[in-house]
Design brief:
With 101 residues, the chain is an all-alpha fold. The chain contains 6 helices and no strands.
């Protein structure tokens, strides 16, 4: 659905694993905050142009490192996102172990 679409999907570019990472980032944002990062107005334009809200501002008990990782998953430039599920799992595991990325 439009609420989970990565910018490259909206632009009609070829999707890759980082496209799925973006959608998962939206899901993680929703799980952590109880809301979507872009829920009103022109959703597609928001995914293309707006910076997502800081998850920690909406959920103050959220670990800062997890908040940062969620925002990284929502990067407009797919090169700034984890490259695939394995890279995301490694980043999540490092959070669990208390090791910075």
């Amino acid at each position: 659905t439009p609420y989970y679409m990565a910018p490259e999907q909206i632009l009609g570019e070829d999707p890759d694993a980082r496209t799925d990472i973006y959608a998962l980032g939206v899901t993680l944002f929703q799980m952590a905050t109880g809301s979507l990062p872009f829920a009103t107005g022109n959703i597609l334009r928001a995914h293309l142009e707006q910076t997502p809200p800081d998850p920690q501002a909406l959920a103050p008990d959220l670990e800062p490192a997890l908040s940062h990782l969620i925002v990284r998953c929502l990067a407009k430039d797919r090169e700034q996102r984890p490259r695939d599920g394995a890279a995301l799992l490694a980043a999540l595991s490092s959070l669990e172990d208390g090791v910075p990325e």
